[in-house]
Design goal:
Strand 6, helix 7 and strand 7 form a beta-alpha-beta unit. Helices cover 25% and strands 20% of the residues. Helix 7 crosses helix 8. The protein is an alpha/beta fold. The chain has two domains: 277 residues, TIM Barrel (Alpha-Beta Barrel), CATH 3.20.20.80; 266 residues, paralog of FGE (formylglycine-generating enzyme), CATH 3.90.1580. Strands 23, 25, 26, 28, 29, 30 and 31 form a seven-stranded mixed β-sheet that branches.
Length: 702
């Protein structure tokens, strides 16, 4: 009897600790599975409704956040790209101005525009020095004042602006305030609309409190579904990392709070059909992200046209999509056609997707016959005649939308129908579904006057008739996909791994990186002062470098500053293959001094919150290359070639730096081996200058 009683108490305790009621269809990550078969749809829906009712009680979901007028814009923010601030459509470094109209004009033309943008000024460059995520925001061209003007340009076009914050950035410079307080204050200063929580599975309540305390109405958008359903009380948007089975799944966040906005994200996928159909079926948004860390994954013409039409329907009927009576998987007739029903105010909107690979024509949608009800095929822009069931065409892997209302079409609806009728005169199948990479070009370098004899402090590198230039990029993401890294002359596309056989003419290269003393001589002789001077020689004071830093490499110089010095000296920056040949010789060694790491050949790497400054260039004589060139690896990164495609500028930096913040693999990685290089995205000198990035020069030889 004692054992039975103890067993009963144990079972009761386990039940009390259980996370919720038993259900046949528990959530799978960010989604609920769809019904197993059409006859079970009603039972499946009842199960989900019971689950929602209980989960809302357990999570204390009250909906107050979604009633706030200042945050309501998120409920209709259907199309949101993540935008790299380095994108050449967004900023013109020659004119030194933001070009928001050009950027948005391109998106309007290609896929119908956007509702919000997530501007990204941090990863993958974050961590090349000790500047933190907020410093990189402050270092944007024009500083915070320039950002405010740029955001005003987006607002003028009706587009909201978010910026990211990342919890993993704990190894760089410390801020005096907490992370939530710092980002909220910066967002208020620039007039932004929201915060994206990079790697956050739900932004904590402290960000909501900091936003409200700062007096700035900020929508919070974690990258993943909130770790607790309770977070839906303060996170009104999320990204959707979803699964895409044949039977569409249901958004967990939107099901628990129908006004919650999800932007489905599948950034590396080159075919957007599954993603976009899943978003449309759920009545949520889509992340039209193409410039991914400076790697272009452009949207195909077919997908772009689908986005245009999907977004047009969602924007027009956004008021229906937050319906508390949303009914996913409402009854349809043909195999492979799935519909969601959104009732509202006596009218009803249905969104449909055709998951089959063939066109379907005929009765599609079961509806209850109601006298006097008008039905409109919104997708094709016509009124449906003949009553229930409703018949209309759906193309292979296509979309549909139907509106039922008691009133006949008014002027506004008729105008919308005419627009959709005109758009769908061409089916989606008429648009090419061919993905293209963006070809890159290396920025040309003007040759120098040819030196008959090796200039002082330089090393003559003899001609090589058959040099094997083998190198690969150390980008953290992108895998081996075409488009990753750069495209050298002789290659037909950008790619991560490069092996090129080349003849290299003789040249002279600086024995050491350019020092503070040498750069000071240049400034005195030339009077050089950059137009964009933010962060220029940041570690100098009153135009003078610190005492004892004569022979340390100059840093906090942009690639433009380095080119100006080189031109003054009658030199140029090295091509990357010249840099590697000077460091490696012809035997393919891993490091300038040999094939194993040597602690006495380069400075030890540091990981603190502050920069100590680079080491004197002659401090490690054992680190000499086989051709006698010094300080090639482990002290400062060094500028070499610049590459451009239509959307991105990037420089190849070599040699690695002595500093890398601790605590995260997402920081800009080191590239000490001579078969590795860093790809450093370029925006403008103010942001590109770094405390661990210097340069050396070369001169063409006779």
């Amino acid at each position: 009897m004692g054992k039975m009683r103890r067993l009963a108490i144990c079972l009761f305790a386990m039940a009390a600790m259980a996370p919720g009621q038993d259900t046949k269809y528990p959530p799978q990550g960010q989604q609920f599975p769809g019904p197993p078969a059409k006859p079970d749809t009603a039972e499946w829906l009842q199960e989900l409704q019971r689950y929602r009712e209980e989960r809302r009680v357990r999570a204390g979901l009250d909906g107050e956040l979604y009633d706030r007028p200042d945050l309501r814009w998120a409920q209709s923010s259907f199309i949101q790209p993540q935008v790299m601030v380095e994108d050449r459509y967004l900023y013109d470094p020659a004119a030194r101005r933001y070009t928001v109209d050009r950027f948005l004009g391109d998106l309007d033309q290609r896929y119908g525009g956007v509702d919000s943008v997530l501007l990204w000024p941090v990863y993958p460059n974050l961590g090349i020095d000790n500047r933190n995520q907020f410093d990189l925001l402050r270092d944007m061209p024009g500083g915070l004042e320039g950002l405010r003007g740029m955001i005003a340009d987006f607002h003028r076009r009706g587009v909201r602006v978010l910026f990211p914050t990342m919890p993993w950035d704990m190894g760089t410079r410390r801020e005096s305030r907490s992370m939530p307080e710092t980002i909220a204050a910066l967002m208020k200063e620039v007039g932004a609309d929201g915060i994206n929580g990079d790697t956050f599975g739900g932004l904590p309540r402290s960000y909501r409190a900091a936003s409200d305390a700062a007096g700035q109405s900020l929508v919070l958008e974690p990258e993943g579904f909130p770790e607790s359903d309770e977070m839906l009380n303060w996170d009104s948007m999320t990204w959707g990392y979803w699964k895409y089975p044949f039977v569409p799944m249901v958004s967990r966040g939107k099901w628990l709070e129908p006004r919650h906005m999800v932007n489905v994200c599948d950034r590396w996928n080159k075919d957007k059909t599954d993603n976009l159909q899943a978003a449309f079926f759920n009545g949520v948004g889509y992340e039209t992200w193409e410039n991914i860390w400076g790697i272009w994954n452009g949207i195909t013409e077919r997908d772009a046209e689908a986005i245009r039409r999907v977004a047009k329907v969602e924007r027009k009927f956004a008021g229906y999509l937050g319906s508390a009576d949303w009914e996913p998987h409402t009854p349809t007739i043909p195999y492979g056609i799935f519909a969601s029903k959104f009732p509202g105010g006596g009218s009803t909107l249905w969104l449909l997707v055709n998951r089959t690979v063939y066109n379907v024509v005929g009765p599609e949608l079961e509806v209850r016959s109601e006298p006097g009800m008008h039905y409109f095929d919104l997708w094709h822009g016509v009124e449906l005649r003949g009553g229930a069931p409703l018949s209309f065409a759906m193309e292979a892997l296509g979309y549909g939308a139907v509106l039922a209302q008691k009133e006949p079409a008014g002027a506004e609806l008729n105008a919308f129908l005419a627009e959709m009728r005109n758009l769908n005169a061409q089916p989606l199948a008429a648009f090419p579904k061919v993905w293209h990479f963006l070809p890159q070009q290396i920025v040309p370098m003007e040759p120098t006057a040819r030196a008959a004899r090796t200039p002082e402090a330089m090393v003559r590198i003899p001609a090589a008739s058959d040099f094997t230039f083998e190198v690969h990029g150390i980008e953290i993401e992108g895998g081996d996909d075409i488009g990753v890294d750069v495209q050298y002359p002789g290659e037909d596309s950008p790619r991560r791994h490069h092996v090129l056989r080349m003849a290299i003419p003789a040249f002279d290269i600086d024995r050491y990186p350019v020092t503070n003393r040498q750069f000071a001589e240049f400034l005195k002789a030339s009077g050089y002062h950059p137009a964009d001077a933010h962060n220029f020689l940041k570690d100098w004071t009153n135009g003078t470098y610190p005492a004892g830093w004569d022979t340390r490499p100059v840093t906090w110089v942009s690639i433009e500053d380095a080119r100006a010095y080189a031109a003054w000296a009658g030199k140029r920056l090295p091509h990357e293959w010249e840099w590697q040949y000077a460091a490696q010789g012809l035997d393919g060694r891993a490091y300038p001094w040999g094939n194993t790491w040597c602690a006495d050949c380069a400075p030890a790497q540091e990981h603190g919150h502050e920069l100590r400054g680079p080491t004197p260039v002659d401090a490690y004589p054992k680190g000499a290359s086989p051709l006698g060139v010094m300080d090639m690896t482990g002290n400062v990164w060094q500028w070499t070639d610049e590459f451009q495609d239509e959307h991105t500028r990037a420089a190849i930096v070599r040699g690695g730096g002595y500093y890398r913040p601790a605590g995260s693999r997402w920081y800009f990685p080191s590239a000490y081996k001579l078969t590795e290089h860093g790809k450093y995205l370029l925006t403008a000198p103010s942001k590109d200058r770094s405390g661990t990035l210097g340069f050396r020069c070369v001169k063409d030889a006779q």
